[in-house]
Amino acid sequence: MRTSLCALCKENRSVIIRPKDRAKLCKLCFINVFETEIHHTITTNNLFHRGEKIAIGASGGKDSTVLASVLKTLNERYDYGVELILLSIDEGIKGYRDDSLETVKRNAMQYEMPLTILGYEELYGWTMDQVVEQVGKKGNCTYCGVFRRQALDRGAARLGVKHVVTGHNADDVAETVLMNLLRGDLPRLSRTTSIVTSTPSASSDPASNTNIKRSKPLKYAYEKEIVMYAMHKKLDYFSTECIYSPEAFRGSARTLIKKLEQVRPSSILDIVRSGEDMAKLVPGNDEGCGGTCSNSIPVADEEEGGCGSANGRTAGGEMATMEQQLAQNEVASENALEVDLTTPKVNGQRNDRHNSGTVPLPNRRKGKKGGEAFIPKKAPTKQTMGTCERCGYLSSQKICKACVLLEGLNKSRPKNGLEISYDSQPKEESSVNGIINGLEKTAIAGD
């Protein structure tokens, strides 16, 4: 079999086919291109400022580990002049988080970065093991997601950090865009597609709220390329998925995106770019209000899921299979695959819009224009930012999601000294599952 040369250096043998554009590269060129693209993302979006202290949300997984490694390399290479530290959240999951935190501790020594670990039990009086024991595995990710996002903000505030970077990659953003489109939640697109979001200062208590900025330097990096970079750089990361992670709606969106990627490698970035373009058309986006709309939405509702970028959301163990293949040092080879996308035939004829014309909508309701279907438009609900009456965290509701969930848990828990009391106790659903359903059905998008 004839081996091809690297498409860039034209000297070394190509061992990698980039999932993003199918370019054949050698190991050194791939690493250089990957790091250069991350640098380009950082500089074009002005993510960092000299003298800034930045906390890396570290879970021990591939995304946060690669993020820490790349940022350390680029900070030294291009002299960003920023101080990097690691911030980890201990959800309290034995057999998963305790093991991954050992990886984070090794990373802290390898990259010579200070590490701070903040636990759910310290913040909320509950570990995720206790939450799952109380409510079961159905809906437990709702608790973890809300608690984790708020915990990162609180941890950053304690450390005096005003900028947190997370390892969300292009696959994660594409999944979120697709989920919001399928749910018809277009107003959320401006937040989920933005590379920078922030939590405006809304409380005088420095422990509860400060101006915390979130950014995603890996926003345009493919998950597969992140795995390949980690393997070729021999990075130390934790690859086991969360033991409580269910097959949820995100898993379905993920599977669909992976199938699209097989047909069209650029489909992931295409979806991300489409989401960005559609977000500009949504009333209340940044371009229409001078940057005071979507950026005033709290970061706590920026992303779905609470396990970071990909942990606990991989469907079918695809990344684990890929890691195994890379570990075996198999030489990448290109398989040409052409797929003929055709529509099924109806009554012996192909159902083609170009031949048959536009399919008319059913006349469910007659409007003023005759037989055209008329569907009244709903004006998007505009959020008013305030603070939670109980904890002081930024929220569009009187009571933030975390406090609502905690109240449901504490009502169900026997009094043992850990129950949280509040000065004011508005009536909420006593059932834990009822509280989750109420959060999902609320008309306002998030806290």
Features:
40% helix, Rossmann fold, two-stranded antiparallel ribbon, 14 strands, 447 residues, 6-stranded mixed sheet
Q: Helix tally?
A: 16
Q: Provide the β-strand percentage band.
A: 5-15%
Tell me the major beta sheet.
6 strands, mixed
Q: What is the topology, as strand order, of the major beta sheet?
A: 5-4-3-6-8-7
| CATH topology (level 3) name of the largest domain | Rossmann fold
Using the CA coordinates, give the radius of gyration: 24 Å
Write down the overall geometry.
globular
Number of strands: 14
What is the rounded distance between the termini?
58 Å
How many domains in all? 2
Average pLDDT: 75
Query: How are helices and strands ordered from N to C?
Result: EEHEHEHEHHHEHHEEHHHHHEEHEEEEHH
Helix content: 40-55%
Pick out the low-confidence regions.
201-209, 287-306, 308-316, 329-368, 417-447
Structural class: alpha/beta
EC number: 2.7.7.-
Keywords: Cytoplasm, RNA-binding, Transferase, tRNA processing, tRNA-binding
Pfam families: ATP_bind_3, zn-ribbon_14
Main location: cytoplasm
Describe the structure.
Residues 386-416 form the Cytoplasmic tRNA 2-thiolation protein 1 C-terminal domain. Belongs to the TtcA family. CTU1/NCS6/ATPBD3 subfamily. Residues 345-375 are annotated as: Disordered. This protein is of the alpha/beta class and 447 residues long. The chain folds into 2 domains: 27-307 and 315-326, HUPs (Rossmann fold); 394-446. The chain has helices at 27-44, 62-78, 97-110, 120-124, 128-135, 140-159, 170-182, 189-192, 223-232, 249-263, 267-281, 286-289, 318-327, 353-356, 401-412, 432-441; strands at residues 16-17, 24-25, 53-57, 83-90, 115-119, 163-165, 196-199, 212-215, 345-346, 349-350, 366-367, 370-373, 386-387, 394-395. Strands 5-4-3-6-8-7 form a 6-stranded mixed β-sheet. α7 (170-182) packs across α11 (267-281) and α9 runs parallel beside α13 (318-327). Residues 201-209, 287-306, 308-316, 329-368 and 417-447 have low confidence and may be disordered.
